[in-house]
Amino acid sequence: MALHRDPNEPATDPYFGVRLWLQTETRHGWVWAYNLEHLDLIGRFVRAPLREGIPWHDHGRKMTVVARLPAWIQQAKNRDEVLRAIARIHASLLRT
Question: Per its UniProt entry, which superkingdom is the organism in (predicted)?
């Protein structure tokens, strides 16, 4: 989620400029993913009971996809809300 965008607006593809299909709004902002693999990675990260310290706090910028998630998604207090959002995205796929 490295896009520089307004978190209060739906996410769009940076190349084509079209709205992403896998996204839903929460009270904190939008949860979005480029594909199911990306969505599942976010879900696994959010569900993890223990998130170890980030080993790339050196002078270089070596951030992973999950390290670039918005802070509100990374906070344990928002875990249930983020997982509900991911479930809504999965459910929307079944309806189409």
Answer: Bacteria
